[in-house]
Amino acid sequence: MDLLRNSSLIAATVTTGLMAGLYYAYACSVMPGLRATDDRTFVASMQSINRAILNGWFFLVFIGALLLTGLAVAAQFGAGARPALPWIIAAFLLYGLTIVVTGAVNVPLNDGLVAAGDPDRAVDLAAVRARFEATWVRWNLVRTAGSLAAFGCLTWALVLEGRGGS
């Protein structure tokens, strides 16, 4: 049981950290970089990025972080007093928030960019961008904060587990 408890906690921490890093990269480089571009470049770039990110490696980590954190929660039960458990539960809830935000806000906004069609033929790219950019950036900051907080909780849970649960 120690192997499952420790390995699931490590895997949850790694995958959550990867997602926190992805959201952070958008927050501090991708979106600020695209902010300086014209409307056509912005829309075309985001459409391309959104197509590229839909791959198995991304989904493995995006969903895996939640599933592995859930497994880490389950592995804590039946092991006596587990001081790491509240931290892992907090991480599960915080990372779950990022999935909800992604599905409720960011994905529909991405779909709106797809619906705009080919940027070379789309009408009023400024309006397409205006409906997307500020809201997407704001909610990506929520995802960044939520996943970073989840990563911090899991890191602290690892420290507690390393101390023998004390």
Automatic annotation (TrEMBL):
The keyword Zinc does not apply. Keywords: Membrane, Transmembrane, Transmembrane helix. The chain crosses the membrane at residues 7-26, 56-77, 84-105, 141-160. It holds the Pfam family Anthrone_oxy. The keyword Membrane applies. This is Integral membrane protein. It comes from Parafrankia colletiae.
